[in-house]
Amino acid sequence: MPNKKNKSSEPTEKLTKKVGPFFSNEYFKQIKNKKNAFIEWLALPTEYKEPKTQEHLGRILNISRVSLWKYTKKEGFSDKVTIRRRAFFKQYTSDIIEAIKTKAIEGDPRAQKLFLQVVEEWEETTKQKIERQEKREVIFGVLSEGDISRLQNILKTLKPPEIKYQILPESNEEKNK
Question: Would you say the pTM of this structure is higher than 0.85?
């Protein structure tokens, strides 16, 4: 009977587990699209980059530094790097929240505030903002969907009031000054 490869031990292109400094020249050569390889390389923190420089990456990918530079000027390029960078760092979110929690429990007020903002979606608000929101909730809680829709349509058609100025004649007192 022929040996079947265990699929779970085969490397995948997607990074789904915590990563270490295993990125290497070979890793970037495996990425077929040179632009995607460059995006992947740019998204990494310096300590994970191997090769360490764009020039060396260009040699590995067989592409000039000028071509790499031109990639950075294309519309949407930096957005793709940002998306990939976020994907890379998401793996640390739980550990960071745990560290914030530890500091918060130790009594660090900044960590306590940050923990509440991240975990509980707490926002610092002013009394005025809270009152305004409560009024909106009451108003929109009473109105039906149709009423709200009609109000929105009316508001769209309203024009700001026309302000007319009247020039008043100077008084005798003003003329004598």
Answer: no
